[in-house]
Structures
1.
Amino acid sequence: MTSNIVNVVDRGDVILVVGGDDKILKLRTDSHMRRAASDAFAALFGPDFAEGKHLSYETAKEIPLPDDDPQAMKLICQVIHLKHSLVPDQLESNQLLRVAKLVDKYFLHESMSLAIAKWLHIEDGSHRLNSLGNYLEAATLLGQASAFKKATKALVLNIVEPYDSLINETSSTKLIKTICALERKRNELQNHLSQAIYDNLSYATSNNACGCLTSYMGDLCRMLRNRKLEPADIRKKPLCNVLADFGGLPRPKDTTYRGKCSKWNCDHSLPATQWQRLRDATTISNDLFDGLCLQGI
């Protein structure tokens, strides 16, 4: 067991002994600043608890917090004691989640709000399941609706893997409900795109007794196969890539043909419309999902 003392303030009447057997960190802090930071600390260091009695700057009292993360508590102490030059601009997602758990535990949401807003930043294109899961849980704990919406959107559009590992790592009912909703939404969007492809091919097949749309069907099938956009492929790649690939598809042959076939009287007036519907399906899928609403979970 190692024990280090960090002077968050030069003169403090409380030394927080944070951590368990593996590593303990001692943080010299000021009880007045902690009382101002949250109602939980105001009660803990008030007259009704032993921790708040006989406090002195000459002989700081040690307060054990064995269940808390030492580095997360150190960051929190630096923020609420206004040591802004020591506070990092960014945190790794796992570190942010540890901070968020303590913020929620000690009701520090308001006093930590500016730091959290800076740390809870999700980069566009984030594609690591565990990192996004950490951001999602942190946003849920902290009630950050904007970050929650962005994390859920990234999980649906950027992630291919199942979300099972996220469920296995949490006991939060709200988070489990969120993850189940994300799986339903991802399946819904994948089915929407698959149905649009099927409708295109089904239309061409049912109106091709004369063979006039063979080149349209062949060209479309080749494009979908070469770009791995057939229905089975859609579930094997991130939806953001699927939507981008659909957006880059060139127009198949014969999509400008109009009227009825004189040989078999087949209706060929709609290939262009059907093709546009396929293109629209990608736009609709992208626009329909902008992330989940935290208040709706």
2.
Amino acid sequence: MSTSFPHHKYYSLRSPNNVGRRHHRRFPALVHCSATSTAKAKQKADQLVIEPRPLTPPPIAKTPDRPSIKDPDLLSTWPHRSWVASGCTTVLISLLKCATGSAHSHMWLEPVLAGLFGYVLADLGSGVYHWGIDNYGDASTPVFGSQIEAFQGHHKWPWTITRRQFANNLHALARAVTFTVLPLDLVFNDPVVHGFVWVCSGCIMFSQQFHAWAHGTKSRLPPLVVALQDAGLLVSRSQHAAHHHAPYNSNYCIVSGVWNEFLDENKVFEALEMILFFQLGVRPRSWSEPSFGWIEEIETPSQTTVY
């Protein structure tokens, strides 16, 4: 005579590769415990029959739609154009004050040297800014959230920057330049000050356009732009291409790229990351493998055709 006692139990199933891990998944199983009263049956070990039940896999998150050439996010709006116009106006006022002040004072060398310093500093500033938004914060970060999200998406679809319209690409920096340079235009008349201001602010505002040219193909770029890239006055296509390889932690500067070699060879940004980690406990994104959302997708012919 035998009696069967069905019970539902949960047994932890772990593969040998996961031995020692703290967490493991539990699978529901239907267990039958059979026991007999006959002598022959007593000689056998109790038998456990495990019937695993398949679990419903979690839903797969939908991948964001690939951008297209007609994507509204790539188009310029009138507010974009207004900010670019205001930014250019403040820079031109600074240039005019530099030129007129130099003419009246017969002083040319100092404003030129100040402009050269502004040009070099703008490249460094673009690298520090690029490093910061690539590695820290997210879309919810105050002030910089939209730019952080845009730069992270740029790693997945880098070619979109060449499809982005001019004012759309520059308006965020143009707005910052407007609020920064306008007070300087009103307060200072020194040609040396404005020699620095107009060059530095102009390079910062147009750095996103230099960035876009660094993603362009040589045959489609204006000959003057190609010449400036080859001369090292604008960030080159080959130099910036090195940035678009995981973990995206080098060649951050996008004005001329003159600082990239020094910053990368001396591990300046890695040192800053260590300081922030030990002081604030914040890890940069470049320390982790990029998620699938960061892996670059190649432009397809359908995305280059206007319908």
3.
Amino acid sequence: MAKLLPKRKLVPQTDLAELAFRDLKKREQAAYNVICYKDNPRLGTALELLKTTQEIEQNLEKVSLPLLILHGKDDKVTDPSVSKALYEKASSTDKKLNLYDGAYHSLLEGEPDETILQEMKRSISTGGVFFEDQEPSTSQIPVEISNAGNPPRLGFIPFFSSPAGLPCSQIASSAFTLGTVAVLPFYTLMIVAPKAEFTKKILKSSIPYIVLGSLYAYLLYLSWTPDTIRIIFASKYLLPELPGMAKMFSSEMTLASAWIHLLVVDLFAARQVYYDGLQENIETRHSVCLCLLSCPVGILAHFITKAAITRSREKTENGIH
């Protein structure tokens, strides 16, 4: 049937988030992954995946590079026996298999950060992996380890943490909360007490822009790489394309930096609306409110309000004369 109707989306699809992510918060976030394919797979795609899987299984013994295999014992998506077969059949002389008790399919994304990162640090030194056997502490994930027993050799795998050693997801979450909380007092003052001298004095300060700008720059430093530039400007005309942007914003760190960017621009626009309202004696509280999350709508609301009030004043003055 796949050869006759290769493009028909007839393969049953199951939501794997519950099976793949043990951490409940990360399981909820998985639903917002914009690059995750959520439709039923095509028959042709399913057939090719099956063929590819079979071909890989038939060539496991050709794997000869240093090998570190990590797999959750409670993985219901891919059976741990697959990783055991890779470990047993690979011709690598330097190989290691770690099976984690209680861990699900998305081992590096769906487990609690504090547990998986502690376990990773057990075998990671600066810049790479040392295949060493060490006894895990009580705070680490229980793990079953198989090692080829050869002298340690250095191999490299990515370690997703900041230069300070904190998980990037933790930094992104903290930055998101900090930025949101930081701008709320300024909006509150512009809405609750727009004509108070204290509000006018506070709004003149450049401190929030310096703080948020520094935070934004730091997040960009953590999230942007040469690959980021290639993803954004993948077009032959060197113009941003939507698929590339969607892929880029699938990262929590990139989303956090974009959120800080949005907050800074919105606050700056809201402050300009506020000052224009003071100068022209125009009501701006509704416009300032809209600027918080819908900046263009807030600016439009201010222009409409300003035009309506100006016209009303002109009619009043003409009536008096």
